[in-house]
């Protein structure tokens, strides 16, 4: 059987044109997906059932036992942390927010370690963005800043920019210019028309210089800015001003380097400046397939996109204080629930030391680095493979994922709802 | 009236204690106050040994003295304070002096993030170091500190006085990255070095008596000025933001 128009649950491109060949309830071939997406569809290394840490080993337990353990542990905590959420569907994220409010915990998603700074900048100066389709059909200039789509979002280039046709472009490949800005020559830089190499930590200065040049204040700018010559900056500014429609896509190379949200604010303000001359937009290259959804769900339910502390019964938001890395590094939580992410693979050592000291429950289909830190792991169905649910593409477009396999695994939403029901009974 | 709050020793824990009730004027009505440890509400005397000497009719006559090894866990002490004095004999947690409009807070140790956030008046003295966002604004807010003064005798972290719109901040040691970012009023003085001062400033005055590292390329040089016995280089900017602020530095280094 071939399932058409399946949705790839890997990166923020959320490609919805995937063809999956299924034989005997196994995925045997995947068409249209990139290597990352194909690997996700084909992966079969799942946990068989819930496991409980037992001395140096593991003991198999039932879903009922695991869910009861999780509910009791989180209910008795003074400051439970509910983290992850970007690798699951919106319906499960909704239950997570209700749960955080009920048990008065802190709920945070992976954007606090990727594009959280982008959201902070947007809260300061707004977001002149657009959908991927608009860029595909209209943009004659695309800038990738601190992002390397060939490695991280492989089909972004072929579906929407460098190799895509555009309805309003006669010859998209020829007419569409691509500029790459990065601290090293990436693979994406090799296919760009212009590569701007910045010294590490110099993005903010380059963005400020470009804003000044676009305003015609070139004479104040020193001969080089963070390794970039004034001549190249003027050339880039002219390319931008001369474009009919420009689009900036930025990645964690800009959000997670020195200055963080101030880099993004500066980039947005450059786009605003350019919009006095032509049409320009800016968007984030979101990583997890539904990290955008976790920001959406959190925002519509609590008013805030991530890092929400319900300790006092009301939502309090302050990234740097109510975000997972900060809480763990400061040892400010006494239990953790991890859903749809793998903090042990990404977080600093200090955070992991605290994770090792507190009870941790993980809801995830696969054994991963966080498995080594948890007391209980509950395997679930994979959204987009054996569970359906809503996810948000990197440009904010909601897409319903499809089921390509049938298994007995419960979905994230089902497991969380059962936990939540037990908690409601206890409260 | 002198209120002494000595934190009771307990099992080692780092769960923060939110104590916005610790404001001088609240003690005019007694000590029946609550604080929050995580999601648990506790009576003041469950966390502190409380003693009161003398009495008072107005906040200006109340001094609160906080002591103990764990005062670094206390958040929001002195929030909305409008008079009187708070003395912290050790370190203090985040958001001390939030929205403060009057009175004095003196911290003998270090202060955690957001000290004096969005304050409009009064005085904060910190004898140790301050972490990030001292005298700054809130996320997405357009104005940080609007009035009063903050004096830090140690060093400051990043984003010192972010979005400052009034008042004076003085740091006797070095400051971190982005001191005075988005400044649009007030005065910031850093006696030591700092990185990328006054980024995107609109108006206001920023003085760096040491070296401005990673100096931004969008400040126009206007020669030198004499300031309190020092020769400083005067820049205006941030021109990227059409700013007309004043940045005075002893020395500067571009990231070229
Ligand atoms: S680009 Fe992203 S969403 Fe598209 S197939 Fe590859 S991993 Fe999946």
Number of helices of chain B: 1
- What are the low-pLDDT stretches of chain B, counting only 5+ consecutive residues below 50? none
Radius of gyration of chain A, taken over Cα atoms and rounded to an integer in Å: 23 Å
> Which structural class do the helices and strands of chain B define?
mainly beta
> What is the count of β-strands of chain B?
18
Question: Low-confidence runs of chain A (pLDDT<50, min 5 residues)?
Answer: none
Classify the oligomer.
heterodimer
Q: Which geometry of chain A do the CA atoms define?
A: globular
Outline the secondary-structure elements.
The complex is a heterodimer of chains A (427) and B (256).
Chain A: E1 2-6, E2 18-23, E3 26-31, H1 35-42, E4 51-54, E5 57-60, H2 63-76, E6 80-84, H3 90-103, E7 106-109, H4 116-125, H5 132-138, E8 141-145, H6 149-152, H7 156-160, H8 172-175, E9 177-182, H9 187-190, E10 194-197, H10 203-214, E11 224-225, E12 228-229, H11 230-242, E13 245-250, H12 252-255, H13 261-274, E14 279-284, H14 291-302, E15 308-309, E16 316-317, H15 324-329, E17 335-339, H16 343-346, H17 349-357, E18 360-363, E19 376-378, E20 389-392, E21 398-401, H18 412-426
Parallel strand pairs in A: 6-7, 6-17, 8-9, 8-13, 9-10, 13-14, 17-18, 18-19
Antiparallel strand pairs in A: 1-2, 2-3, 4-5, 4-19, 7-15, 11-12, 15-16, 20-21
Chain B: E1 2-7, E2 17-18, E3 34-37, E4 40-43, H1 44-47, E5 48-53, E6 63-67, E7 74-75, E8 82-88, E9 102-107, E10 123-126, E11 149-152, E12 168-171, E13 184-190, E14 194-195, E15 203-215, E16 219-227, E17 230-237, E18 245-254
The complex binds iron/sulfur cluster (SF4).
